[in-house]
């Protein structure tokens, strides 16, 4: 049983996995009262991240059941604490992966709290009061205002929800590698899924030449005509890979399936940068010669800080960047999980939390 405190008096309707079967079922639980540093949010939409499936099925061996997934949350503020000055009732807001951090370490003080050793997540984490955190598959959320962002008025709340995880995950590597406001560069994006399609949109908005690298030739038309990619490489086509040798300045790898980095590194120019945001279950094959003979850099990156998340979503408002989604109702979550495992989605499921349709 998840820990609660006497302050957890608000009964909330949600949807949870109760065991490692991963099946999502209706679940009533308690949230804390709105504190001085809190905002209470009526949840309208919540995106489904592949991480949700891993936690629901305890794939990583760390799930605390029952688990209420969901860290791509958008909604409306309905109550604010006395210490909160940057939000008011009626505001459009979002909550991503983070619910708490120590606020004192070097990472926190440098607005990099996502790398804090004591960071806690929106669900399956432990909040400051010792309670287990429950995520966005629910009707409402109480969140510390320091972990909440404002959603621009021009962004629809449903298509903005996945930006709170997928969006910031691909945005931060571009920011960190000076791809915002820089001269036109040749950018490669490996994988055309929930992360990859947003990476294309950001890179094009920043004025770069974008090459999509995929195992599926069938995705070329969509990558170019719908998403605006400039070039497309089928990674299994040796001739195509060879013809793009040393043509890219930067590659973002969004793929979570096991794959060798060697062939992709050869696409980079001398001193090119390769950033990994996908998380395969097994260690990656990283040959040394493409690094040594190309003076190339391989880096990793995860989500972003709250400051970066706010910057990201403001840029999305400026450039009208939104996630391509399929809306579902809560009774369709289990079906959505099955389709995600089959890669049968373009490109993100979003749960209409406020929908009255639920047969679960």
Automatic annotation (TrEMBL):
Keywords: Metal-binding, Oxidoreductase, Zinc. Coiled coil: none annotated. Belongs to the zinc-containing alcohol dehydrogenase family. GO terms for biological process: lignin biosynthetic process. PROSITE patterns: ADH_ZINC. CDD domains: CAD1. The keyword Metal-binding applies. It comes from the Eukaryota. This is Enoyl reductase (ER) domain-containing protein. The keyword Cytoplasm does not apply. It comes from Solanum bulbocastanum. Its cofactor is Zn(2+). GO terms for molecular function: oxidoreductase activity, acting on the CH-OH group of donors, NAD or NADP as acceptor; zinc ion binding. PANTHER family: ALDEHYDE REDUCTASE. Pfam families: ADH_N (PF08240), ADH_zinc_N (PF00107). Residues 16-351 form the Enoyl reductase (ER) domain.
């Amino acid at each position: 049983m998840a820990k609660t405190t006497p302050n957890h008096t608000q009964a909330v309707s949600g949807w949870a996995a109760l065991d490692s079967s991963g099946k999502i079922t209706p679940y009533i639980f308690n949230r804390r009262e709105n504190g001085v540093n809190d905002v209470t949010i009526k949840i309208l939409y919540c995106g489904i991240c592949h991480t949700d499936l891993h936690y629901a099925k305890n794939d990583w061996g760390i799930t605390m059941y029952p688990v209420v997934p969901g860290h791509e949350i958008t909604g409306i503020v309905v109550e604010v604490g006395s210490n909160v000055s940057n939000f008011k009732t009626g505001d459009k807001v979002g909550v991503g992966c983070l619910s708490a951090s120590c606020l004192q370490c070097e990472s926190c003080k440098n607005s990099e709290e996502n790398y804090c050793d004591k960071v806690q997540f929106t669900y399956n984490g432990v909040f400051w009061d010792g309670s287990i955190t429950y995520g966005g598959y629910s009707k409402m959320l109480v969140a510390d205002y320091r972990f909440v962002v404002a959603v621009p008025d021009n962004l629809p709340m449903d298509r903005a929800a996945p930006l709170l995880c997928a969006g910031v995950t691909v945005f931060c590597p571009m920011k960190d590698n000076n791809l915002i406001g820089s001269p036109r560069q040749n950018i490669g994006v490996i994988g055309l899924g929930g992360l990859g399609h947003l990476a294309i949109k950001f890179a094009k908005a920043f004025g770069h030449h974008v090459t999509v690298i995929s195992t599926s030739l069938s995705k070329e038309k969509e990558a170019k005509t719908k998403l605006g990619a400039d070039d497309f490489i089928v990674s299994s086509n040796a001739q195509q890979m060879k013809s793009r040798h040393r043509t890219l300045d930067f590659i973002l790898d969004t793929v979570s399936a096991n794959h060798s980095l060697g062939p992709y590194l050869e696409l980079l120019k001398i001193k090119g940068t390769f950033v990994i945001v996908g998380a395969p279950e097994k260690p990656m094959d990283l040959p040394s010669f493409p690094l040594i003979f190309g003076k190339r850099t391989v880096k990793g990156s995860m989500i972003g800080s709250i400051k970066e998340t706010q910057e990201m979503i403001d840029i999305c408002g400026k450039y009208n960047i939104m996630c391509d989604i399929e809306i579902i109702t809560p009774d369709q979550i289990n079906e959505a999980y099955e389709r995600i495992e089959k890669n049968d989605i373009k490109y993100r499921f979003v749960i209409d939390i406020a929908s009255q349709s639920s047969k679960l």
